[in-house]
Design brief:
Largest sheet: 5 strands, parallel
Shape: globular
CATH architecture of the largest domain: 3-Layer(aba) Sandwich
Helix content: 25-40%
Number of helices: 6
Strand content: 25-35%
CATH superfamily of the largest domain: HUPs
Number of strands: 9
Strand order of the largest sheet: 3-2-1-4-5
Distance between the termini: 47 Å
Mean pLDDT: 91
CATH topology of the largest domain: Rossmann fold
């Protein structure tokens, strides 16, 4: 089974959800291609934060509510991630889901993992962003009016001043000048989508301080106003 950019119209699918820009654009494109997005699906660490982005799960719940979709959650560690994926997708198959949508753009090892994991549970993998230029991904999101807040970054590559700020054209050009991935495909940064097409209302959040894990600096951010 090979990952596809487009699926069968009306096919019931889930979207692998990080809360960030790539998953969001994949959701938009899946809807526009006629896929029936039934739910978002996310993975939470044992200490109660989303994997990679380290987001408060309440933020993901607020996103899902604003998008008018349920959110399926599975707790995992990096070591048990694949087993967690099998558990979650097996539950979704019982609800009639036949495919999964993923926001991967150009990392072949990620695509191979998705295809293998989906193949194990006989789900069709869809990768609607695959092969896009990274600058095109950001340009399309910004052109559609998406608001993308930087919630983590590699402190050895990007200035801390970007934490908590919204991505704009200047941010993209800065990444190009520095010779790093404009979409943060190698973990240079992560985002939280707070508004854009399909959102019934913006996601409200409260900013706190920051915390660091190795070279990654994270913004402490919780749901709610203030």
């Amino acid at each position: 089974m090979k990952g596809k950019s487009e699926g069968k119209s009306g096919e019931k699918v889930f979207v692998s959800w990080s809360g960030g820009k790539d998953a969001y654009l994949a959701l938009l494109k899946a809807r526009e291609q006629g896929l029936n997005v039934y739910t978002l699906a996310t993975f939470i660490s044992m200490d109660g934060k989303s994997m990679s982005h380290a987001l408060h799960p309440g933020l993901l719940q607020e996103q899902a509510a604003a998008l008018g979709l349920p959110l399926e959650v599975e707790r995992v560690t990096w070591e048990s991630y694949e087993d967690g994926f099998m558990r979650l997708t097996s539950r979704l198959k019982e609800k009639g889901i036949r495919g999964g949508v993923f926001g991967d753009i150009n990392l072949s090892q990620h695509r191979e993992w998705v295809e293998k994991a989906c193949g194990r549970v006989a789900l069709a993998p869809y990768l609607p962003l695959w092969g896009m230029k990274e600058k095109e991904v950001l340009a399309e999101l910004l052109g559609r009016g998406a608001r993308l807040v930087v919630v983590s970054l590699r402190s050895d590559l990007l200035d801390e001043k970007w934490l908590g700020k919204e991505i704009d054209d200047d941010f993209c050009e800065m990444c190009v000048r520095k010779g790093i991935s404009p979409c943060g495909e190698n973990g240079e940064y992560h985002t939280l989508v707070v508004d854009g097409p399909l959102f019934k209302s913006p996601v409200r959040f409260r900013r706190g301080g920051t915390f660091k894990e190795k070279d990654h600096l994270f913004l402490k951010i919780k749901p709610g106003s203030g």
